[in-house]
Design brief:
271 residues, mainly alpha, two-stranded antiparallel ribbon, 11 helices, disordered N terminus
């Protein structure tokens, strides 16, 4: 017998805002089993792709040193990110019976951030992404201990082999851009902050953002060396910011700042 669906009661509106601005309205809450199932549907394929499929594919690619493995990893991680986007679309379609933008916008918290203290929506509220990006950047700069040399993307970009591979290589640059878009916009962020976070309140209450941070850190089985920094810094920069302002755009903006910087660096290598 399936567990009953829990719906979060609509909180009182702020500063005269009408019911349409309640970000939990119409969102059905997940049970713990459902939360774990969605997490596994993202984490398990990523782990299999990174640790089993990529090594099996690397001999299909040409290149010196660790270029074949790098090519295989870039390809499978892009596929994994696209799968996460497809998973989001499938779950929202099943829940809402619609994929119209107005439905997606509300179901995935894709509205402008709203200040919990003043009720202001958008405008100067967006400035909160600046300190959150700073927190996220600190976490990204912490050395990832235990990362295999042939799987460290930063070291690959700094190596002579990596720079030679990317020089003039517009095809792989395009693939990397697609991966970035699906990773930080349409994949991880839509899945964990747009879909899961609003649906974890019924199970975890006020601690839903912390629980989401734990699940997000544990999801990184494909790059387990980033789990500690992800748990500490990403939980604050991506999850708490999204929860406090009830907008998945916060997490998307902060997470995508990394992609913008990496894109600029890689474009320099391509040119």
């Amino acid at each position: 017998m399936s567990s009953p669906t829990i719906t979060v009661p609509a909180p009182r509106t702020l500063c005269g805002l009408d019911e349409a601005t309640d970000r939990y309205a119409g969102i059905k809450q997940y049970t713990l089993t459902q939360i774990i199932a969605v997490w596994a549907a993202a984490a398990v394929p990523m782990g299999v792709l990174a640790w089993i499929v990529a090594p099996a594919l690397k001999d299909s690619f040409a290149g010196a040193g660790n270029v074949p493995l790098a090519k295989a990893l870039l390809l499978v991680l892009m596929i994994g990110s696209i799968w996460e986007f497809a998973l989001v679309l499938g779950l929202v379609s099943f829940e809402q019976r619609s994929l119209h933008w107005s439905t997606m916008r509300d179901a995935l918290w894709l509205r402008s951030p709203r200040s919990p203290s003043t009720g202001r929506v958008g405008g100067r509220v967006w400035l909160v992404v600046i300190p959150l990006i700073a927190v996220f950047a600190i976490g990204a700069m912490i050395p990832a201990f235990g990362a295999p040399a042939d799987r460290d993307f930063g070291k690959f970009l700094n190596s002579d082999t990596g720079q030679s591979f990317l020089s003039g290589n517009w095809g792989w640059f395009g693939l990397i851009l697609v991966w970035f878009v699906f990773n930080t916009v349409l994949g991880e962020e839509l899945l964990f902050r747009g879909l899961l976070l609003p649906r974890m309140n019924g199970r975890f209450g006020r601690g839903d953002w912390a629980a989401n941070g734990v699940f997000f850190a544990a999801y990184h089985v494909h790059v387990p060396w980033v789990m500690p920094a992800t748990l500490v810094f990403d939980t604050v920069a991506l999850v708490y910011g999204t929860k406090r302002y009830r907008s998945a755009w916060i997490g998307i903006a902060v997470h995508s700042a990394q992609s913008v910087i990496l894109t600029a660096i890689i474009l320099g290598l391509v040119l």
